[in-house]
Amino acid sequence: MSDALASASLLLAALALVYGAWSTSIEAAINKTFSANATIKAKEKGDIRRIRNYRALPLAISAALVFILFLPRSFQLLCVVVRCVGRDGCRYDDVSAVFLLTQCLVAGLTVHLAFQIAKLNENLK
Predict the structure, then answer these.
(1) What DSSP line would sit under 46-85, residue for residue?
(2) Neighbouring residues of 49: CB distance < 8 A, sequence distance ≥ 6
(3) Distance between CA atoms of 104 and 14, rounded to whole angstroms?
(4) Quick check: 64 and 110 in contact, CB under 8 A?
(5) Contact between 110 and 60 (Cβ < 8 Å)
(6) Which of 40, 63, 87, 118 is most buried, by the most CB atoms less than 10 A from its CB?
(7) How many CB atoms lie within 10 A of CB 76?
């Protein structure tokens, strides 16, 4: 379990690092107000499309893949928790709890990025 936790934590850290580097440009693209000039507006939309396609989408796909990769182990741990609820003799496992927390954080990042992509798509209409 500790190897899985180390791997999941490392991947979450890498995602967080890339998100931290790219989040400013993604947010700027979401909050962009367009020029009235059609030529300039087309260039601005092209910039937003590039940010969506080469930053937001790859990051969201990466986060989703990390979540999916560890989903079977998470499901297995949740089944153990459900079986233990209300029973004596079950002991708390902090490594498993931290693993599930890491998985929740990756899921949250994935959902957040999906909403950001949806906002970018709205800007492109």
Answers:
(1) HHHHHHIIIIIHHHHHHHHHHHHHTHHHHHHHHHHHHHHT
(2) 124
(3) 16
(4) yes
(5) yes
(6) 63
(7) 10
> What pTM, to 2 d.p., does this model score?
0.89
CA 68/CA 54 separation, integer angstroms: 21
Round to whole Å and give the CA distance between 24 and 113: 13
Q: How many residues does the chain have?
A: 125
Residues in Cβ contact with 116 at an 8 Å cutoff, skipping those fewer than 6 apart: 26, 27, 30, 56, 60
User: 84-95: buried (b, 16+ CB within 10 Å) or exposed (e) per residue?
Assistant: eeeeeeeeeeee
Contact 103, 77 (CB under 8 A): no
d(CA 102, CA 94): 12
**Rounded CA separation 93/14 (Å):** 25
Using one digit for the tens of pLDDT, what is the confidence trace for 70-120?
Answer: 999 999 999 988 888 777 778 888 899 999 999 999 999 999 999 999 999
